[in-house]
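lol ok so funny story. i was supposed to be doing the assay writeup but got distracted and ended up predicting the structure for this chain instead. priorities right. anyway since i did it might as well share w the group, maybe its usefull for someone
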Amino acid sequence: MQSRRQPAVYEGDLGGLIERARWLAGAKPRSILGITGAPGSGKSTLAASLVSALGPETAVLVPMDGFHLANSELIRLERRDRKGAIDTFDGAGYVALIRRLHAADEPVVYAPEFRREIEEAIAGAIAVPRAVPLVVTEGNYLLADGAPWDALQPMFDQTWYMQLDDAMRLERLIARHITFGKDPEFARSWSLGPDQRNAEFIASTRIKADLAIVAADLRMRAFYSARA
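and the output, tada:
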């Protein structure tokens, strides 16, 4: 059996990634860039930086986190203690949204946004006009196998996997949990528990990415550290 190809490896700086995204934006009327990686790897920071650099007429950010199930539903399903696992998202809803964005045949599509300060998603918070040529979406499970997730991959023009060494990733992740109100001991426990189990699963999907972004370059590490 032929082995699966490995993703290309990128060790450059942010400017090079912005130029790649700019090329995607100009490649056709609507392109979709998917960015994935383990919790704390920097995917949401990178996605926001790309969209900011390109401007609102060129790119819009649609995070997968808007499809977190509500806390009340997670409690009903007895999954609240592992929020962030693949079965704590409305995967079918996210796929349906990406399908609409891929088709680009509506004047505007509205997407939900996850608000970390309340740990809930807000419907209709992100407007995506048809004229915007690039949609950047980021999340944990963009390259996961099995329904409904495997329907995503044919709709992405490129997928990038964020790869950060575990020590830095965990440091950033714990700091993020604390910033949003978690007790430091709980933040560390959660990062090494549910988040780490998710990270190990996500790492198994790396092979499907087009590009693996390795934060080896000092400029890229400085970019991460400044936004931890």
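The CA atoms of residues 124 and 173 lie 27 Å apart. Residues 8-212 form a domain with the Rossmann fold fold (CATH 3.40.50.300).
back to the writeup now i swear
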